[in-house]
Design goal:
The protein is 29% helix and 24% strand. The protein is of the alpha+beta class. The chain has one domain: Peptide Deformylase (Alpha-Beta Complex), CATH 3.90.45.10. The longest helix has 24 residues. The two termini are 25 Å apart.
Length: 251
């Protein structure tokens, strides 16, 4: 998510770390791999060897509409290894370079249910937060505010969302988190969770709002088709295969 106009309005953040049991199925769904021997064994009876593949994190770039991964519903992450930690670091770096405050894995062509947030939009400032397998609940109130998206640079529109939400998720250490949010953090978490479900903020615009951004979105579509035709972006079948490989590794 990009910084909208009026971002610097006041917001409150309640970040409560605690162990909890819910009916969401979060409790047994994440395994932290040991870096000692390079071998992992998950609760889901999958055994394999962790390979050092620095190219995954290093190759990541923010993708733009209509890249198909942006419409792919992400699968829950079930294991975290050293490469995924590097991926998260790279996501923060890309977010800062683009002057964003939130970035979902779909936006860097990863079909994984995680996103990163830092409302300060600057490395070394604010608080860096990682949300893995987020589940939103208890929406309260309504508020309309302008939003933008790093996968649709230059496109903005007013979106109505709940003012307050509760999010259950994991952090990179595999710890469960229950967080009550309002203000800008609530909006960013909802925006990024939408990405994980294959939904973009433009889907939530009014019909008038959708018409106002249609021309800009068509420009992105023409550019994407051109890059696929020239081989700069892989064809859809290749993108599908890559997503399937990553889901096998982490989901």
């Amino acid at each position: 998510m990009t910084i909208p106009l009026g971002f610097w309005s006041r917001f409150r953040l309640y970040f409560l770390f605690e162990t909890f049991v819910t009916e969401t199925g979060l409790g047994e769904s994440l395994h932290i791999c040991s870096p000692i021997d390079g071998v992992y064994k998950s609760r889901f009876s999958r055994v394999g060897t962790i390979t050092e593949d620095h190219s995954l994190a290093e190759s990541l770039q923010i993708v733009h509409h209509p890249h198909p991964t942006l419409r792919h519903k992400s699968k829950p992450v079930q294991r975290v290894d050293g490469e995924l930690v590097r991926v998260v670091r790279r996501m923060f770096d890309l977010m800062y370079e683009a002057k964003g405050i939130g970035l979902a894995a779909n936006q860097v062509d990863l079909p994984l249910r995680l996103f990163v947030v830092n409302l300060a939009a600057q490395k070394g400032e604010g608080e860096e937060m990682v949300f893995i397998n987020p589940v939103l609940s208890k929406p309260k109130g309504h508020e309309k505010m302008e939003e933008g998206c790093l996968s649709l640079p230059g496109v903005y529109g007013d979106v109505e969302r709940p003012k307050q939400i509760t999010v259950h998720s994991f952090n990179l250490r595999g710890e469960e988190i229950k967080t009550e949010l309002d203000g800008m953090m609530s909006r960013v978490v909802q925006h990024e969770t939408d990405h994980l479900d294959g939904r973009m903020f433009t889907d939530r615009l009014t019909e008038t709002g959708k018409l106002s951004v249609r021309g800009l979105m068509e420009e992105f579509e023409v550019d994407f088709e051109s890059k696929q035709n020239t081989g700069e972006i892989p064809v859809d079948s290749a993108l599908n295969s890559r997503r399937a490989e990553l889901e096998t590794r982490y989901c």
